[in-house]
Specification:
Layout lengths: L2 E10 L12 E9 L4 E6 L3 H9 L10 H5 L7 H11 L8 H21 L3 H4 L7 E9 L4 H13 L4 E5 L7 H15 L4 E5 L6 H11 L4 E5 L7 H8 L6 E3 L6 H9 L5 E4 L1 H18 L3 E4 L5 H11 L8 E4 L4 H5 L11 E3 L12 H6 L1 E5 L1
Parallel strand pairs: 4-5, 4-11, 5-6, 6-7, 7-8, 8-9, 9-10
Antiparallel strand pairs: 1-2, 1-13, 2-3, 4-12
Helix pairs in contact: 1-4, 3-4, 4-11, 6-7, 8-9, 10-11, 11-12
Amino acid sequence: MRIIQVICQILRIDKIEQKTAGTQDTIIIRIRTKSGLEGVGEADASPEVLMAIIDAPYSHNLACGLRELLVGRNAMEHEAIRDILYRRTMYFGRRAVGFAAIAGVDMALWDLKGKYLSEPIHRLLGGQRHKTIPAYASILFGHDGEKTAEIARRWRAAGYRAIKFGWEPMGQSEALDLELVAAARKGFGDDGMVLIDAGCVWDARTALQRALRFQDHNIGWLEEPLSQDDIDGYVWLRDRSPIPIAAGEGECGRAAFRPWIERHALDIYQVDLARNGFTDSLYIRQRVEEIGARLCNHCYKSPISVAACLHWLCTHEQAFLFEDCVEDSPLRHELTLEPMHAVNGMIAVPNGPGLGITLNEDFVQRHLLMESN
């Protein structure tokens, strides 16, 4: 299965809004082999930056574009390829967007491997433990409490038994923070799970004060209350918070996750397959299981990433929740022929070969902004 072509396609919907949502554009990485098979992957960062990393020509042995390192290699050797890509992008990758590009390539290689062997990726990762997983509706806060409660009622009526609100306008004032959380609980009902994503807005002491106030509303977890760089703050907060602390979505690769795991910094480790790929996410899953912590996916992207996260998370025995982005974007709902969202609060794991998805090529062509190969 020799790689003969690496194609990057940037897709963008017609209307881009000023909000923290990865459902407005994306990059698709398509790896084609001499045998005629194609693997598909997706990475989550600025699509143009990711494309530049893949397209970049040789500079020197530790600063090389990914395509040049991939063409001619055997696509089945994903672990060896991962290590080559990691080492030879050492001077611009390692723990950020460089590794996110490697993650998208890795996802496509596992898709290829599954298609070649006619097996779903979850079987190649060690075995499916869940056919379906409870999903939470993941959405941004409304601009105030009233709008947030309205959104909560909508998704409870749609069958979700858990919901997460996140990001702006959280962090503007204590009064607004409390208003948003109280409204989320009121709108979703007393018997549903409400999760709060603060969006990295506080210092550790302020986050503890908010957690103490939020516990009155029976919050399931408090996500990313601090800067993604503040591991010391997370260790301090996790030891004191009455609410479980979740984070990890911004980390790219096993080396980035290692200090978080070794220091038991979190209650819930959130892993994004579009920033880590399957090879490193398998390693991270095993390490988190060893320390007895919980895992959840992070995914606020397209059905490609949703499928990848499902294959990975369903191999975790203690999988308890799946992030199901409910943004009303055609990129989220129309990119694949197979629907990849929850039904009555449960999301099903794909069982087709590889990722088990089929790109809607008409949609790709309608929203294609840029292509390189």
